[in-house]
Specification:
Keywords: Membrane, Signal, Transmembrane, Transmembrane helix. With about 120 residues, the chain is an all-alpha fold. The protein contains 7 helices and no strands. It has a domain of about 60 residues. Helix 3 crosses helix 6. The chain is elongated and about 95 Å long. The mean pLDDT is about 80.
Length: about 120
Amino acid sequence: MNFAFKKTTCRALVVSVLALSFQTAQAGLIGADQAAAATMTPERALVLGSLDRAEVVAQLQSAGVDPVAARERIRAMSDAEVHALAQDIQHGPAAGDISTWGWVAIVLVAALIWYYAIRK
């Protein structure tokens, strides 16, 4: 019985390997412009387009980042990372956002300054 089971298992494996190995593949060459157009999503174009602004370039250079290196890094990012960055660019506040805890900290610092400097 053990020999019959092994024989049946081997036959099933041989049939499955033969059945799965006959697949057709097609290869061809495409141009560099087609490859670049296929990978360029609108979100990636938005993020790369933001690097064209003079203010962004100035901020990158003041932080010590080469704009060319930043472009290469954006091209190397995954689609999920580019999506998150594009969402931040589109929906981020223009002048900054102070959270509730930020306002609490500002009021607390102002109260401490008033208590120790002005009240005396």
